[in-house]
Queue: 3 jobs
Job 1
Amino acid sequence: MFSKACEYGIRAVAYIALQSLDGRRVSVNEIAEEIDSPIAFTAKILQQLSRNKVIQSVKGPTGGFELDRTEMDTVKLSSIVHAIDGDGTYVGCGLGLKECNANQPCPLHDKFVDIRTDLKNMLENTSLYELAMGLEVGLTYLKR
């Protein structure tokens, strides 16, 4: 359902959130290594997330990426998805057909609408803090 960039973005933000809880900024190299992603690709994703104010980028010798603890409760996973994939996750045909809609549905249209609604609810109701806490207690892993 998500692009590879979005998957890496979610994993990167989860790692940044966890490190931010310990008061640490993290470099693009550290993030890329931790989430098993190419450095240049990770840098591009982090730039998109920073531009969309999902994460903060601090320049300079002590710079890196971080999240403000107070924002972790209010920023939701949907912000990451929107910053990287836009609204594509919530629209379009599950089979990739161009002309699928309520008037001309594909065989999976009605079932896929329900799945997308559930996915959207989950993304809009899961905070970055919850994601970080899942990592901290070992419920989530960043590498495949």
Job 2
Amino acid sequence: MYRDLDILISAETTLDSWYDDGCIIASEIISEFSIRDWEELARNVHTKPLEWQKKLAYCLDTNCSIHELEMLISLLNTEDEELFEMCIDTLRSFTKTENKQMILENPFIIHRVNELIPKAGVATKRILQDFLINIQS
């Protein structure tokens, strides 16, 4: 299944096509991942182009599984603000107590969100603030 996901995300598409159809198909593929697929994704994700990583981050809330959470936390180790913000946006779907605890165990996440809020645009600021509210409730 990892190969199917890689082929799909690597395909050249318009943004509209990706957000209308591609992410839905990617989410379906991810929902069928085995442990081996998650391991292969973890080994390869940081070698992929930035746009590939952004597409992945957008669709990693299919089941809000521990594997998706771990992958998002891994992707948060980026200098790219857009990828970081996309991961934070997706993390807002992870509402289980154990998921929130795992996020809180990585203090760099909260620190970086707080750094980004003052310079963020209105929509992004709302996403970042909503994340902080959700994670602490």
Job 3
Amino acid sequence: MPRGPPLSDIEKGQILALHHQLMSLRDISKELGRSVGAIQRFLKNPSRTSRAYALVTGQKLTVREEKAMIRKASTGNFSAQDQKKDLGLPVEVRRIQQILSATLHLKYKK
């Protein structure tokens, strides 16, 4: 199912206000015409901004590209240089290595 438009600043403020009034997630979603999941994701981490489609200032990789890179690394023996070439990533090899080493579920083995 496609995503709806991102939450506006006004909607975010309304969600926080209604949540502080102890209104349920379902009631908040009916009030604002948004899905319960969207409300729940926002309340879980209000400072998070959506990066799935648009780049954040200073970021060269989208979340989608990072996830693809991690998936490819977890499937087999691919060097950072191979990943850069195969996925067409706009970052240097060293940055790919840094991202992969920061991923908790990946462990380097010889």
